[in-house]
Amino acid sequence: MALSSNDAEAGRQQREVAENENQFTLSNIKLQRLIHLTDYLPDLQIHPNPLDHNPFFHPVSEFYITPYDVILRHILHDLSGAFPSPGPHLAYHRAGPRKQIYFNQTHVRAAIVTCGGLCPGMNTVIRELVAGLWELYGVREIFGIRAGYRGFYSDEPVPLNPKMVREWHRKGGTVLETSRGGFDLHKIVNAIQDRGFNQVYIIGGDGTMRGMVEIFKEIKHRKLYIAVAGLPKTVDNDIGIIDRSFGFQTAVEMAQQAIGAAHTEAESAVNGIGLVKLMGRSTGHIALYATLSSRDVDCCLILENEFYLQGKGGLFEFLDNRLKDNGHAVVVVAEGAGQDIIPRTESQLQEKDESGNPVLLDVGSWLKSELKNWWARDHPKDLFTVKYIDPTYMIRAVPANATDNLYCTLLAHSAIHGAMAGYTGFVCGPINGNYAYIPVEEVAQAKNPVNTKDHKWAWVRSITNQPDFVRG
Amino acid sequence: MALSSNDAEAGRQQREVAENENQFTLSNIKLQRLIHLTDYLPDLQIHPNPLDHNPFFHPVSEFYITPYDVILRHILHDLSGAFPSPGPHLAYHRAGPRKQIYFNQTHVRAAIVTCGGLCPGMNTVIRELVAGLWELYGVREIFGIRAGYRGFYSDEPVPLNPKMVREWHRKGGTVLETSRGGFDLHKIVNAIQDRGFNQVYIIGGDGTMRGMVEIFKEIKHRKLYIAVAGLPKTVDNDIGIIDRSFGFQTAVEMAQQAIGAAHTEAESAVNGIGLVKLMGRSTGHIALYATLSSRDVDCCLILENEFYLQGKGGLFEFLDNRLKDNGHAVVVVAEGAGQDIIPRTESQLQEKDESGNPVLLDVGSWLKSELKNWWARDHPKDLFTVKYIDPTYMIRAVPANATDNLYCTLLAHSAIHGAMAGYTGFVCGPINGNYAYIPVEEVAQAKNPVNTKDHKWAWVRSITNQPDFVRG
Amino acid sequence: MALSSNDAEAGRQQREVAENENQFTLSNIKLQRLIHLTDYLPDLQIHPNPLDHNPFFHPVSEFYITPYDVILRHILHDLSGAFPSPGPHLAYHRAGPRKQIYFNQTHVRAAIVTCGGLCPGMNTVIRELVAGLWELYGVREIFGIRAGYRGFYSDEPVPLNPKMVREWHRKGGTVLETSRGGFDLHKIVNAIQDRGFNQVYIIGGDGTMRGMVEIFKEIKHRKLYIAVAGLPKTVDNDIGIIDRSFGFQTAVEMAQQAIGAAHTEAESAVNGIGLVKLMGRSTGHIALYATLSSRDVDCCLILENEFYLQGKGGLFEFLDNRLKDNGHAVVVVAEGAGQDIIPRTESQLQEKDESGNPVLLDVGSWLKSELKNWWARDHPKDLFTVKYIDPTYMIRAVPANATDNLYCTLLAHSAIHGAMAGYTGFVCGPINGNYAYIPVEEVAQAKNPVNTKDHKWAWVRSITNQPDFVRG
Amino acid sequence: MALSSNDAEAGRQQREVAENENQFTLSNIKLQRLIHLTDYLPDLQIHPNPLDHNPFFHPVSEFYITPYDVILRHILHDLSGAFPSPGPHLAYHRAGPRKQIYFNQTHVRAAIVTCGGLCPGMNTVIRELVAGLWELYGVREIFGIRAGYRGFYSDEPVPLNPKMVREWHRKGGTVLETSRGGFDLHKIVNAIQDRGFNQVYIIGGDGTMRGMVEIFKEIKHRKLYIAVAGLPKTVDNDIGIIDRSFGFQTAVEMAQQAIGAAHTEAESAVNGIGLVKLMGRSTGHIALYATLSSRDVDCCLILENEFYLQGKGGLFEFLDNRLKDNGHAVVVVAEGAGQDIIPRTESQLQEKDESGNPVLLDVGSWLKSELKNWWARDHPKDLFTVKYIDPTYMIRAVPANATDNLYCTLLAHSAIHGAMAGYTGFVCGPINGNYAYIPVEEVAQAKNPVNTKDHKWAWVRSITNQPDFVRG
Description:
Four copies of one chain form a homotetramer. By secondary structure, chain A is α/β, with parallel strands linked by helices. Chain A has 16 helices and 19 strands. In chain A, the strands form four sheets. In chain A, strands 1, 4, 6, 8, 9, 10, 11, 12, 18 and 19 form a ten-stranded mixed sheet that branches. A four-stranded parallel sheet of chain A has the order 14-15-13-16, sandwiched between helices. The radius of gyration of chain A is 25 Å and the shape is elongated. Chains in contact: A-B, A-D, B-C, C-D. Strand 6 of chain B pairs antiparallel with strand 5 of chain C, so a sheet runs across the interface. Chains A, B, C, D: GO terms for molecular function: 6-phosphofructokinase activity; ATP binding; metal ion binding.
């Protein structure tokens, strides 16, 4: 296929944007640069986008996204005397179809892998990657990697097609199966190479994204004609930069059920406490949002806001008053909370998780036991009940709701368009409501803690009237 | 295939039945006698039923129930030569309004108490007792006893009226609160007497019913003009004689969610086991029905069918094969199962519950741990995941579904009609689909184990293909 | 209050019953005879039941059902002087596996057909017929007939197996498709014969059952070795003899949603009326049960209780008062209600449905329009809103809930056991909670109207306070 | 209360921003100016924000929002040679608490009114306005206006407090009641003045917002010390500028049920068409999003994309093919679609709605009838079924889901902070994920049509494969 002048122009734009990344000054905008396959494979052939001839698309002038199209990350500005603003404004490439692409549809061989824990919407993402590659770009060789990273080298890939995946969006979990660990860089890259995959779609959380950084770098190092795209998956919403992660809203919805049950159990008992542990190892978003939505929670404990049990201003004093006033109370605790105050045995002190951090102890069971001890000590003659609910699997194993389902569709299509356009080492996600491409290294590092200084947390406190746990 | 004499016999039976279709005769009926207030207060005044003048009722001839109206308990008969049948046929008084009643509506002072654990529908029963007493019989003094039996003597009764309870059927739990224990016979009967209650409605399980037997006897002993009515409540469906208990169908419905989540978790893992503990201390009905409804369960363990883990025909062997075949498995275990094979510590051996039985150990956690040990021992190199779900509170704290809601209405109305008619020491409940009055002593004793010899259990086994755990 | 003789009589009855508790005797039993294939094919070979050797069954002595095992239909008895009771007691053969069967499993060729409108659970019934025939009796030739009766002669049968139907119980509707009409007796029986089917399972309502009577008679007339079993399907619950039909409870549950929405719309408006039309062409069971469960309904209109709009005691007067008192009202109307008072055009007077009855007019739209006219006439200056909801398809197209799902399983297994045992022209269904075989002619005739003289209807009136529509 | 220098500074900032609104050039930003009470009441006293002393807030430096804090509306930029960009960048004031406020909490008298049709979340908004005013600012005089605008002058206001509204977020509809019309400017403003309200919160759609413009202008004209805040409510999502409206996501979720039922009905019939009419008078967002989420829709008709029935490329041709291929099809139609091609009677041609536009005809019923006529004409011998579902009230009368619930909370708090800060004639809403204050005139004009040129619509077409209805 001969290169048209249009095609040449696209390449020029791509290079111009890359070369000038710091020079666009809409009052000082810094564009977060993406790696493109042509960065290390400069002679790649360019192809027209098959959407040009897709009967369902009528590409109008604004249809295709150019490398000049960017999304501003920070949309809040301070117009006060502080001009010029302290640093450059970050911008990201917009996701979407490109007029020219760097793959011939008949030569694409795509692999899809899911890693880590379950999250509502994983199957929708897989479904839409398959349907999108097939319908939008005419790709016919699409494979699922079984059971996480290890599946690249330990299992046969599963051929996928739209008919197979048709109903997958109605199922929780991941039909491809998932697992933790199993990351062996060279085995994985060798397998990708051996099996002839030239597009790899990786669905996973921050650990998975850190693995993806290594895979992508190794592929670049080997100068392989393989695009690697990441689709961030974290039910906890603990990945930064992006607005929120898919499945998160479904999880918050489902958490209402558990809080409702805890509330009923607490209300129906004498001095009843309903205790709900919600997901959130490194951040308390689910606990925070579920508390705000439910309005039945008396105290929400998250790791971003340290708490203590005994003494003035502590949890026990608060609950004592709440039981006196209302006869019952509901406590929500994020699984990552309280790790500093749970006593650890000698072996627990030694034990580290895969990332070298101390293992997470079960804050729910510990708190349940502490509550019982407290009451037996302080109110030995009075009735008391703690009902502890851990709804984790009942929350994360459901299918995505309509909102998350649509998110998954847009996310998958974004990833496809990006890979087809020749970008690699990127992650897709919504920034201020629009889908963007973000360098995977950034995403792998970005945390997303709850901001306990902002209004939302203050509102939690004003809804719950819970203490601030600042020792006076 | 030659016809055996057995085969010939089948044909003969078939013909005999056909020829003799009108000639079978039922043997004697034994009516289960109820205690009536006039048994010990023979001079009680009789009143016409105010339903005679209720604008919403048009009592036709069959409207009022007489003492001659009975329900047969056993509707299955054997018409073969075995005449006469071994014993008399049990019959119970039909529930429903009586033409004459033994209370003057302006003098009724009713108390309602809920005891024991939560069960979907408790609030509907309370609501309908209040609405029914008020609307059907014009009663205006209706009180809730707070937090179980102890509430009679330790708390002020709460006045109730239809406006207060209007929306209670939409709430799980019991607005009156509940508790276990606190049974002090004389304090309770004294309080009933002191507060002037002459109708007492007791909602609770088998333990509560045994308490009611004592209360009722003491009241009879003191010759008090007080009717005591029981409304059996057991989410486990472990009370005999009655068809099933309210809340049970709601619980089975909710259990589907937990099984579904376990199935998704198991399917999405490599060698994944989803383990769900369902309610059922003394019987496995919820586990059985949930398994039959879901069809996603590979093995259903209930206390009525002993099981073992190791060796030929054991659970591990079965799961090993199931994982080889399908890659995953779902196990449902009733909370009362396996108590004989869980090792007990010295202190657990000593510990008895309120009824003097060994305390119930947590079969779910034990099984989870045993499964992990088994796999680590037998398959140390292979991936394995057990996801354990205990959905108890999320199942029992929900409001009743439509079917159970209607049950609760009919149950409450039956109790009211019975008490108004002067019966006492009785329990209401459906027998073969019709509401009956049953002597409370009978109900307090009646167990309701799963019949592992019948077709339903065989069907569970044929759905799950699980072993019979009969050591060969 | 002086004691009338009536009052004294009540006390006497009470004592008489108590004294004579063991002396009542039931009169004769009349067993409803089933047709057996040997009735017209006396030389049929008998086979042992393969369940004898099924690894999941351990047939104990009571496991197999004999022709002597019957179920009593009427379990309510009057023990009073009215001995002997007016007629014989009806009894039906119990459903369940027989020790000897009349089919060789390798020669069975089964057909399954669904007719008429949708009903929750149809797919479960199909699934369980397939799974049961396959797993219990080793049948391997099972076929689905597409789109109702006409499918026998107009379409190729679809081979079915357990793997195909595995997830069908999660789907509403019928995968086999359904249709009305298309009944052509000879074409159907010829097709059954030509295709070599020897077991035919027919799932449908009363019209379908009347068709089955003809099919069964023609097969008998031709002396064919073909068992015909009926599985009654009616979301309206309008088939008599059986306790209730599958899908009915699911429908009542779903109807709550529509009533809830109508209630919200009515409450949120000024003089708001929420009007819900519920299924029930020939009976108002769904309307009745949904009203009892919801408790938000102000008036429930069913065809068994005639109503009128204008004048004293009419609907308008009632609603006028209700709007004055509460500001809103909810009306539930069964689709068969009001047919006598809706004006018919000349052509509607001529139009008959397939059974020759006048066509059903849309009572919901008519009532909505009448309500608007009434208000515009009587209260021209006041705000008024009618929100009309017809949730029919959203109710009947859902999958069965857990209770109905289990019902469908037991129903399907009953049908299989009956056909295998050589019975034909029978229908399965629960009678007093136990599954029975009923001659299809009986079921085809049996109506199941709401009894407006019984307590349930009186309770509806006392919940709604609605008028009795008896013109004074 | 003496004015501190801090207070004076806030006033200065406010005026500076107002005076310099066009001069902040972060590359040419145009701030959308808000009216402030001091614009016409320059001597208003300033008060410190009571949040300073609220035990649940610890205002940090960034806690309070200043008039310099703005949100950029357009976050997508084109970095290409097109510098400078064609026009100024719009910016809006950020919502949130201000350090100084213009109301003394003990003098605030707030009114809340809901207008127009139902929308999930209305009750949450009311609840949070009441709870927020009470808890955050110590306001004790809060009133609900009954049944829309007319309630200001025709009804007594209802005093509200946090206890009353505690459970309202669980209820669909609006407890305050709503109505259309009743807008009488002078009666309304007189009533506001007479009753002493100084904060008015108006919850409604575009028509309501146009009314609010007049109210606000009249209040300004009369120079009244009354802040007027708007909270945009539109289940259709037809208001522009804001990201989306509350209740919209809940509606999309509920619409899945209707589409699912239509799909089941269609699949279970021979040549079955499921037809669902979804809300959307002036825009097809619900239809679009529900189609994308469901993936069961074969054709989505919205007013933004004209369609036709007959001939090449028309709906009938498409459905003919779809029925041939799949045997069934699902069509979703937005209520505003097809108005140009539905024939109007003479009287319908004359009839105008309140805004002077032709009345909306029922596209669902029309389409159902057209489909039947088409089939009868073109395929007179073949079976055909159209099942038409109008789920409007079942969608819009439900409570908000967790996502919308949180939205409602943030929206209500934003409105309170804005009114307290002395802004008036403003509307709150999320812009790019952050809550902003927008001049009500802008919101009253802003439309929000579906962009049929963008990727989402193309994806709908690629999911459905539906025609583009561009006549060739």
